[in-house]
Amino acid sequence: MKLTKKWFIALLLIWPILFGLGVWDGEYAMSAVTGFGVTIATYYEQQLERLDKQQATIIRDAANSKVMMFVFGALILAFSFGVFFFDQPQVPLLDTIHLVLGTLLTLRGLLIRSAYEEAMMDSSKAIRL
Q1: Burial class of residue 33 (count of CB atoms within 10 Å of its CB; 0-12, 13-18, 19+)
Q2: Is residue 37 a contact partner of residue 31, using CB atoms and an 8 Å limit?
Q3: Pseudo-torsion of CA 97, 67, 18, 6, nearest 10°?
């Protein structure tokens, strides 16, 4: 099943509302973050199908490498800072998994979007004879 633009916009509106309800109620807030990331990553991954396979593979590889650099840099630093300096010997595992997964998928989707837009602008500037 394809994620159409109408569903994409609807889900982009629903996930922040669910996050707000989750923060207020105390449950499902991090699941909403994960859902937001899955929505963005899925939609922009589908946009890559419009490009040729080689260009789509290059964009995916670039997005994946940037996401991994982000993981090993920022998230490890942030969690170690939180554990050591805020005197939190334990981090809730399930909430952490949801938060990290949602953050990574959102970042990957946004990286794919920017690379896709650049690729579309480059192809539109080409002079055709």
Answers
A1: buried
A2: no
A3: -140
